[in-house]
Amino acid sequence: MKTSIPAAKISAASIQWDSQGQPKSTEFDDVYFNTDSGIDESRYVYINPSRLTERWGAHSGTFTLLETGFGTGLNFVLTLLEWIKFQESKPSIKPQSSIKPQPSIKFQHSHHLHYISIEKFPLDKQQIKSALQLFPQLAELSELLTSEYPLLIKGFHTLHFKDKNVSLTLIFDDVRSALPQLNGPIDAWYLDGFAPAKNPDMWTDDLYQSMARLSRAETSLATFTSAGDVRRGLKACGFKLNKVSGFGMKREMMNGVFIQSQGPLANKFEHIKPWLSPRNIPITNIAIIGAGIAGCTTAYALARRGLRVTVYDNNGIATEASGNPQGAMYAKLAAGEATHSNIYVQGYLQSLRLLKQQLEPGDGWDNCGLIQLASSEKENTRQKKFISNTDYPKELLHSISQEEASAISGLTMHCGGLYFPHAGWVSPQRLCQKLLEHPLIEFEHQVVDKIHQEPNGWSLSTCEESDNHIGHVSHVSHVIIACANKSQHLLPDCYLPTKSIRGQLTYLETSSNEYDTNNFASQLKTVLCGKGYIAPAHKGKLCLGASYNIKDDESEMRLSDHKNNFKYLDDFGQEFKKIQTELTELDNKDYLGRTGFRCTTPDYLPMAGPVLAEKDFESSFTAIRKNAARYPRQAALFMDGLYLNIGHGSRGLTSAPLCAELIASYINNENFPISKEHAESLLPGRFFIREMVRNKR
Ligand code: SAM
C-alpha cells in the first residue's frame, strides 16, 4: 500500500510587470488582476456570491473554502478581511481571563476557516509582496501573508494565522493531481485559473468530477467564467448554476451550488481508501495520554481549533525522550525515498512555523543552522546523490564545502556537508510547556492506567502519581494515545510493532578547562551532525549524543556509553578530535547527561491517525489477502474516537507537529494538512494491513 510521489521539479511563475507594476503571467499571457478594480472584482465574482458571512454565521466547526489558482493571494487576503470582520462582529469565544477554565465549563466549538489554494506556478514571496503592494489598503494583511508564505517546494504547506482562527493550506501542484489527494469536505469553491481558452488543461471533466466528490450538500461555487464547456461539465457533475452579469466589461459569469442528489452516485470510497475515513463522532471532551512532544503538539492543534483537551502524564511535561535539553531539529532526508523525504520536509517546515509563533529565539530554541557533515565517503556519496536527485531551494538546504563548513560552524571542520540554514536546536520541554499554556488545555499529573471503550466514548482509569490504586474514572468522547513505548500497555490487543531504542546523552561543561584549554568549545556556532550530534553551548554545557542501544532498558547512565559518545567527536572537526583521547581517558569523571528511550517503527515513519478495530477489519477486509487493490467498498471499522500519535524515533521535533495537525483534522472532519497518500503512510494500522496483504495473519 506504500506509494511514493517522485520529487518532481516545481515551476515558479514567470511574470512580466507592466508600467503600472501590474503582474502578468507569461505562461498564460493573462493578467492576475486588474489594478484599478482588482478588489471590487474579487468581491463581485467570488466573495459576495459565496454568501460567506451569512453561511459562517450558520455554520459550526471548520468552514473550508478551496480556490484553484492562488496567484498573488489577493482573493485570500480579501476573504481573510471578510473573516476578520465576521469574527469581530461575534461575541468572543475565547476565555477572557488567563485563568484556565474549569473542566466542568461546557465545551465550546469555535469557528475556524480553512482556506485551501492550489497553485501550479507559484509566485515567490517577493513577487507576492510586489503584487499586493498595489493595494495599500490591504497592507497589514498582505504583510501577514508574506511573513508566513512558504518556500517554493512542491506539495502541501499549511500556515496557521495565530489568533485569527484561520489556516491556509497552499498546495503547490497542478489542480488535476492535487484534488485527488484531498479528503474533503469543501464548503465553497472559488473556481479561478486563467480563462478556459488560455488554460484548457485545467478546465477538464476530471476537475468537475473531483469537485463533486469533495462537495457536500449546498457547497457553493463561484467563478469568473461562463464558458459553455465549463457550464456543461459542472452541471453533469451535480452543480446547479446561475449565469449572472459579469464584472465591468465582462458579459457573464457563473455561480451555483452542489445538489448532491443530482451529482454522480458518488461512492465515498472511490476517492478515499476506507482506512482513511474513520466515522466522525460528536466531540464532547478529549483526553491525551502522554505530555511529550507528540501529546503536547496534538493538544495544541486541537485547542487552537477551540476544542477543550486534558493531557495526562504521571511524569510531568516532556520528561522522557522529549526531555533532552537540546534536540537537533532538521529534516534528515533519505536519498531516493520520496515519501519519507516529503513528509519530513513538510514536517520540518511546519515545526519551524510553530516554533516561530510560540517561542522567541533564545527561549528554548536557537535557529543557529545545522550542518549534516559528509564525514565518510559513504555519506559524501549519499549527499551528492541526494542533491542531484532533488530540487530543494537553497534556503531549505544546500551543499557546502569544508571551508564553508568551518566558517559557518566557527571551528575547523574536516569536510563539508549539507547545510540547513534555518535549522538548529530546540528544548522540547520548553516548547511543550509553552504549548500547554493554551487556555483550553488542562494538564493532569496522573497515570492513566486503563482505557475502556463504552457505548458513547471512552472511560479512563487514572491514579495519582503517589499511590498506585485507581483513583478516578473519567469519560471522554476521544482519546489520543501519545505515550511512545508505553502505548502498548494501554492497547494490549492492538498490533503496535514499535521498538524502544535507548539513547544516552553526554553534557560537556564549557567552563571546564580540563579538556578545553583553549576554550574553543564555546565557539561552536551551529549544530553539527555526523554519526552523533553536538549543539552549541547552552547554559555552559554542550550536549553530545546520543547512543543507540537496541534491546536495552537500562535507565541509569553508563560510563561506557559516555565513552562511545566521545567517538562521535571524530566527525566534528580538528578541535573536538584533539580532545577526544583526553576525554576518553578521564575514567573517574562523573559525566553529566541523561538517558531516554526513542520509540521507532519498522518503516521509520510515525504512527499517527485513527486506530483500526483489527478483528472487525480482518473479517470484513479479508479480500485484501488475495489482492490488496480489491478492497471492499465499505467503511473500515475503527475504534471510534481513538487515535495514536507515536513512533517518532529521534525525529519528534520534525514530525510531531505535522502529525498533531493530521490527527486534529481527522477528529474535526477537516481536510488533511498532507496528501491522502502521505496520510496513508502514517496510518497506525498500516502494519496490520501489510501483514494481512502478505498473508502473515
Ligand atoms: N486567485 C488569484 C489571486 O487572487 O491573485 C489569481 C489567480 S490567476 C488569475 C490564475 C492562477 O491559476 C495562476 O496563478 C496560475 O498559475 C494558476 N493555474 C493555472 N493553471 C493551473 C493548474 N492547472 N493548476 C494549478 N494552478 C493553475
Describe the structure in your own words.
It is a single chain. This protein is α/β, with parallel strands linked by helices and 697 residues long. Helix 1 crosses helix 3 and helix 10 (293-303) packs parallel to helix 14 (428-435). The structure holds S-adenosylmethionine (SAM). S-adenosylmethionine is lined by residues 13, 32-33, 67, 69-75, 118-121, 174-175, 192-194, 199, 201-202.
Proportion of helical residues: 25-40%
Which ligands, by name, code or SMILES, are bound?
Answer: S-adenosylmethionine
C-alpha Rg (nearest Å): 26 Å
Mean pLDDT: 89
Beta content: 15-25%
DSSP E strands, number: 32
Q: Which structural category fits the helices and strands?
A: alpha/beta
Gist of the model:
This protein is an alpha/beta fold and 697 residues long.
Task: Give the helices and strands, then pairings.
Elements lengths: L14 E3 L5 E3 L4 E2 L6 H10 L4 H7 L3 E7 L5 H16 L22 E8 L5 H8 L6 H10 L6 E7 L4 E7 L2 H4 L7 E6 L13 H10 E9 L4 H9 L2 E7 L6 E7 L9 H4 L14 E4 L3 H11 L5 E4 L14 E3 L8 H21 L6 E2 L3 E4 L3 H13 L8 E3 L1 H8 L7 E4 L3 E3 L1 H8 L5 E4 L1 E9 L2 E8 L7 E5 L1 E4 L5 H4 L8 E11 L17 E3 L3 E6 L2 E5 L3 E2 L8 H10 L5 H12 L6 E9 L6 E6 L1 H7 L17 E9 L5 H16 L8 H7 L3 H8 L4
Parallel strand pairs: 4-5, 4-8, 5-7, 8-9, 12-13, 12-24, 13-20, 16-26, 24-32
Antiparallel strand pairs: 1-2, 2-3, 6-7, 9-11, 10-11, 14-19, 15-19, 16-18, 17-18, 21-22, 22-23, 25-28, 25-29, 25-30, 26-27, 27-28, 31-32
Helix pairs in contact: 1-3, 4-5, 10-14, 10-19, 11-19, 16-17
Bound molecules: S-adenosylmethionine.
